[in-house]
């Protein structure tokens, strides 16, 4: 596959998942993972989340912006390594804000406590099992055990920069 085709594949897999686990270094240096709702489906190498400025994760990201964002959906996994930055952009918050966001954060996009976390992806690795669903993945696992043949799926590391 070409680099452009592999990048499109990463976009498809991220778009299908929606919720990610963002891993970063906490104040004591230990790795911390938090579930985060991805705010945009048009992935251009930047992943956007909305968070509270005073949250532990925002404070930690300002001290050490290295992150890993992972997605899992229907037998596919994506791991994006990159750098996070905290962004004050009320217009972008207005564009991305929805009722789901209101369920977790107070005051809407105009609340100065609400900020964007933008993760600029450097690389992504994806794995996709044949068939693309949990049922198909289980069927392939059983078939592999019976036949002794290895399950073949897609796997690639993609440069996003």
Automatic annotation (TrEMBL):
It comes from Rhynchospora breviuscula. Residues 7-151 form the General stress protein FMN-binding split barrel domain. This is General stress protein FMN-binding split barrel domain-containing protein. PANTHER family: PROTEIN BLI-3. Pfam families: Pyrid_ox_like (PF16242). InterPro entries: Split_barrel_FMN-bd (IPR012349), Stress-Dev_Protein (IPR052917), YdaG_split_barrel_FMN-bd (IPR038725).
